[in-house]
Amino acid sequence: MSSDRGSDRSRPPAFRFAVRAAVAGAVLGCAVGLGAYNNWLVSLLVGVPLVITALVISPRPRRIDGMLKAGQSRKQIPVTIEALTRSSLDASDVQPTLVTATISPPNDTDYRARWLTAMPKPVAATVLQDADTTLPSALIPPRPDTSLSYDAGLAPGKATEFGNHPPNSTLLQPLITILVAVALFVGVGDAWHISVSLPDPGFGTTADGDSDGSKRSAQERVDGMLAKIGTLEPSAATNILSLSLGSYGSDNISLLDSQTGESINLNYSESSGDWGRASRSTTPLRSGRTFRTDDISRMSFTTIVDQMKAALPENVRAFESMTIARSEDDQPVLATGTFHEVDEDAPNQTASIQANTDGAVATWYQPGDFETSFTLAREAMNLFGIPIGQPIVNRFEIRGNLPSTPTVRAGDIQNSGGLLIDFTDRNVDARVVQAPGSFPQLLVTGKNTNGRLPAGSVAFRDISSATFKTVREDYMRRHGVDIFDRDAVDIQTSYEYAQDDYQTVIMIAMRPQAITDYYSAQGVFLETQ
User: Fold this and answer.
1) Cα gap 469→477, rounded to integer Å
2) Half-sphere exposure of 158 (CA within 13 A, CB side)
3) Mean pLDDT, range 250-274, rounded to an integer
4) Are the beta carbons of 411 and 397 closer than 8 angstroms?
5) Is the peptide bond before 512 cis (omega within 30 degrees of 0)?
6) Which 3 state secondary structure label does DSSP give 441?
7) What is the 3-state secondary structure (H, E, C) of 152-210?
8) Terminal CA-to-CA distance of the chain, rounded, Å?
9) How far apart are CA 409 and CA 405, in angstroms?
């Protein structure tokens, strides 16, 4: 008797498996590309299903590939019983039994074997009733090295060989999948990014259409804080240190206790709709930093937020937070709004801009635009009554606000960028500072006790934007600076040691080299330091 089970099986040609591997690689490459270059929702809705599809399509090693070895399992194995030798059917329940059978494991080829096993009487009875049956895997021997021949007069037959399924082809299939996926992902590059306009989910937005997570407008939030202050003791309305509008509707009031010098802090949670308990802490701030509720009564904060947005670059107009406070003792009360990128996938760029108690919003400008910077510097000097025709300027600096802009000399604008005018007149040492989005500030650093002007000081009207432009163009040519790094510049005029002598020079450094070059006041190159 011979079993032909599985004799009609034929493995598909190798190229069919290679095609499946290539298709799986293409699907996997699409999944990785779409997931890596788009937001999380695209990754979830498109990338994950494609990964699952690739796993289903890709060919997997089989037992006949020689990569996996058969193991024992608890399920029943199909067998065809040829002979059963047992001493008695009526004896004890379990007896030694000699079995000769053809075994047909799942996902494998048949083999013939003879073995001795301890077979229970019910199993033996079942086998005698039907030769084509199943046996528990515990009663079946593993595949022998040689299969038992059906011809008793011949030597045992050879074990089945699988020369048409070499392990090398099995390893080649996942390699094809990986190579196709990598080639597709790298080759397409940024083209994987797709623009999808997703519907507004209806949560996490504000009454002003911003992304600070609050349901209330800026004016409603400020009014709520002023109302809370009105419930406290009368002195609270005249000793405000700051009012802060944070993310997700969290508001903060900071007051100065004029009796103890401590700060009193109250926090509001929009999610709970309640004010937390007041807390106290030490603070170096004193009455010079406080303001009254009346000081901000004319400010329309919702309108101010809209004006701030309009003044900022289009890509940085998502409202994040606002703080109302004095920057220094006896300085004006200002509302400083912070905004971030509108596009969630864009770099995490932020911008801050101020508004005064009259509702006027400060100028947002690009310091690398020398014409604008010189105009603002001249207006600031006129505002503070600083003469532009007297030789009192010790240092005039313009620094860009782009990332990685170098710093020629540390100072007030080394982080924010902007313009700085350091001067000494007959009475004081002082400086004027104006960062993008900020009002100009006059900071007095000391008194000029001897009434003399420092050596090397120049009049502001003798410094020109045209000379600064000439110096920048020459620097870019000398160091091969790209046009997109044009505004990443720090340039200043001051009295420095150059070419073995002290003289008024123009110093400049630009991204990315950050090399500092020295030029004469007329824009002639002197040296590199």
Assistant:
1) 12
2) 3
3) 94
4) yes
5) yes
6) strand
7) CCCCCECCCCCCCCCHHHHHHHHHHHHHHHHHHHHHHHHHHCCCCCCCCCCCCCCCCCC
8) 98
9) 12
Q: How far apart are CA 357 and CA 333, in angstroms?
A: 7
Residue 17 pLDDT class (50, 70, 90 cuts): confident
Quick: pLDDT tens for 477-497: 999 999 999 999 999 999 999
| The amino acid at 331 | Q
CA angle 5, 9, 13 (to 5 degrees): 165
Contact of 418 with 386, CB cutoff 8 Å:
no
Nearest of 350, 351, 354 to residue 307 by alpha carbon: 354
Tokens coding 92: 């004890």
Integer-rounded Cα Rg, in Å, for the chain is 41
Residue 365: what residue type?
Y
Amino acid 139 reads: L
Tokens 């200043």 sit on residue: 492
Q: Given the structure tokens 């623009």, which residue do they identify?
A: 195
Strand bridging mode 525-528 / 393-399: unpaired
User: Where residue 377 falls among pLDDT bands split at 50, 70, 90?
Assistant: very high
- Per DSSP, the residues of 25-76 read HHHHHHHHHHHHSS-HHHIIIIIHHHHHHHHHHS----GGGTSS-----SSE
Token code pair at residue 13: 């040609």
Tokens 């289009």 found at: 314
Cβ contacts of 206-211, under 8 Å, gap ≥ 24: 206/319, 208/302, 208/305, 208/306, 208/319, 210/305, 210/318, 210/319, 210/320, 211/318, 211/319, 211/320, 211/340
DSSP state for residue 271 in the 8-state scheme: T
Q: How confident is the model at residue 29 (pLDDT cuts 50, 70, 90)?
A: confident
Higher pLDDT among residues 50 and 200, named by residue: 50
- pLDDT tens, residue by residue, 132-143: 888 888 778 888
What span, in angstroms and rounded, lies between the C-alpha atoms of 304 and 218? 9
Domains of the chain by residue range = 13-61+176-188, 68-139, 214-362, 365-528
- 83 — phi, psi (to 5°)? -150, 145
User: Where would I find the H helices in 189-323?
Assistant: 218-230, 301-311
List the structure tokens of 68.
């996996």
Tokens read off for 484: 């997109």
Name the token pair of 458.
């120049």
Tokens of 142: 């593993």
Q: What is the dihedral of CA 234, 240, 244, 250, to 10 degrees?
A: -30
Q: What does residue 459 show for φ and ψ, rounded to 5 degrees? A: -80, 145
Residue 348: exposed, middle, or buried by beta-carbon count in 10 A (0-12, 13-18, 19+)?
exposed
Cα 208 from Cα 306, distance rounded (Å): 9
Q: In this structure, what DSSP letter does residue 436 have?
A: T
